[in-house]
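Q: Sequence in, structure out?
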Amino acid sequence: MNTGGGRAQPRDDNGTITVHAALGSMPYTPEESLKALRHYYRDLGPRIYGTYGFSDSFNQSQGFYDEAYMALDQAQTVAMIENYRTGLLWKLFMSNPEIQPALDKIGFKPDPTP
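A: Exactly. Output:
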């Protein structure tokens, strides 16, 4: 069985899902990401969650549950959940004195507040 090992295969997508893509999108898609998190943890549980957190990927239709835990993926997930919860990473990034002048220089305009 070729699962793709969590790597994208656009020409022949086989349904393999990279767990950390949804979880790392938490600040941008909070409702969808939280729903995915609950499904991964509550429904799939030990098949994709273990000592080191969530494994890299899975494919339910092929019965594939990766046994690899990628540190880089774990870091992305933890960082983006924290950023969603408190905005800490964004605040720290924006406190860097070089950031605002760079954004001004490239013409960045913040989204209007609703």
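The chain has five helices and five strands.
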